[in-house]
């Protein structure tokens, strides 16, 4: 009893995966999943969609990984089931296909010649051995597996072409498996990341979109120059990044990235995603040592670099730079180190008069927000040096070549499956009282119209060969 059950399990599992019904069910599920994946934004586009969901629904969507379906475990399992179904179906039916491909029908079969149309039979006169040799040469130049047999007063020939078309469906199955394998390879070993690089700077690290974790590329990317062109209404017309790729500190490639024109380096593809402005390293200041605006000294200061005060008595440096603080505009944090006494730090806003009206009374009186926090100097912020940064999307998908190979193989398989057929041809030469009767018959696994044309063309060629002298 136990033995029979154990023997029955493989057949049950095999029967389950070899079912065509399973294929249809899996394809329907994949179609529905694709619709869901289209309606629900994936990865970075999911944040805005998730805000409109209730907390309970958000927990369900998150638990089911609906915001990253194509990387989820259940989607990979679904793909694995489809791959197993295709493999088992192909193996289950391959034996029968191979038997049809290797079959050697007898040339003197009677059934193909039953109920032949009159147009597929004609009479010819001449020497028997010459006609047999001529038919043999003609058929041998056109058909594979040519076989001939002499039976009684007749000679029989069999030939075929297009036998490999029987395997077209297996090419399609293999192509689907390659596409599925390529998608899984990309899912497991690829990544989708982004990076912002200031003009003139370089980095060797990107940040993964899904987990926000840093990832080292193994090489450096430098933004040599960023250029943007605008329409008259102020919207961007075109923007591009001129990049250098460095390995071990040496530039090995220079490429330009534009919108819809990505570049590839060492298996990583870079797309132009966005751009923006960020504070640079220099600040334009006016430093006055008297009343407001009098005796002001214009100074270009580099962040983090100590600079002597215009009248002496110590140094100062720009500790921090902000493009905008709480919607109050640009500001810098100044640290003054006098020759005697303790260091002093205070913020200097570009629009100080406006900011002073916005600040509450305690903050207005605080030396932390007083641009004259170190007497007798008053600091005025003219401008921050700004630089463009380029926002790049960095993707690596090692499964892409496998997917492309699957696509080309699918095209070849579909062409073979739908446009080629396995044609089998029988020719019989039989002596009669009026001469040699030549009959042509054929069979095909599909495309009966093509088979009929094949037979009619062969009949015409045989007439030209055997009735030439008569003509």
What are the key terms here?
single chain; 471 residues; alpha+beta; nine-stranded antiparallel beta sheet; five-stranded antiparallel beta sheet; 11 helices; disordered N terminus
Could you explain how this protein is built, in words?
The protein has helices at 2-17, 20-39, 46-51, 55-63, 73-102, 128-140, 168-189, 352-358, 361-365, 400-419, 448-466; strands at 121-124, 144-151, 154-161, 191-198, 202-208, 214-230, 236-247, 250-258, 263-265, 268-288, 297-302, 307-308, 314-322, 331-338, 344-349, 378-396, 423-432, 435-444. The strands form 3 sheets. Strands 4, 5, 6, 7, 8, 9, 10, 11 and 16 form a 9-stranded antiparallel β-sheet that branches. Strands 1-18-17-3-2 form a 5-stranded antiparallel β-sheet. The chain is elongated. The two termini are 79 Å apart. A hairpin with an 8-residue loop joins strand 13 and strand 14. With 471 residues, the chain is an alpha+beta fold. Helix 5 (73-102) runs antiparallel to helix 7 (168-189) and helix 7 packs antiparallel against helix 10 (400-419). The protein has 11 helices and 18 strands. 35% of the residues lie in helices and 35% in strands.
